[in-house]
Amino acid sequence: MTNRHREKYITRLLAGFILVSGGILVLLYTSFLKDRQEEWYFWAALSIILINSGLFALGSAFIHKIKADLIRKQKQKDQHKKYEFE
Q1: Are 67 and 5 in contact (CB under 8 A)?
Q2: Where does the chain have alpha helices with state H?
């Protein structure tokens, strides 16, 4: 039986890295757009949304990693008790 938290950890970790990287790329892209001064509000808002979403996904991935580890340890503990009493 697979652990759902482990699956969520992997997908959210990848999504977090992609979103944070995208936000940084947007910041770098706008730093080279010197001729369009009035558009920086849009690009700043986009980079803020991407970076914050990425950090949220990374935090969620961290929570799911802890849950997956706790579930794994509990299963090992239960198996150890089961074999100890037999």
Answers
A1: yes
A2: 4-31, 40-85
Q: Which residues contact 43 (CB under 8 A, 6 or more apart)?
A: 26, 27, 29, 30, 33
Q: What is the pTM of this model?
A: 0.75
Helix (H) or strand (E) holding 32: none
Going residue by residue through the chain, which has 86 residues, state the pLDDT in tens, using 9 for 90 and above: 357 877 888 899 999 999 999 999 998 888 887 666 777 788 889 999 999 999 999 999 999 889 888 888 888 887 777 776 65
Contact 58, 17 (CB under 8 A): yes
Contact 19, 59 (CB under 8 A): no
The alpha carbon of 34 is separated from its chain's Cα centroid by a whole number of angstroms, namely 32
State in Å, rounded, how far the first CA of the chain is from the last one.
24
Task: With H, G, I as helix, E, B as strand and everything else as coil, classify residue 33.
Answer: coil
Alpha-carbon span 26 to 5, nearest angstrom: 31
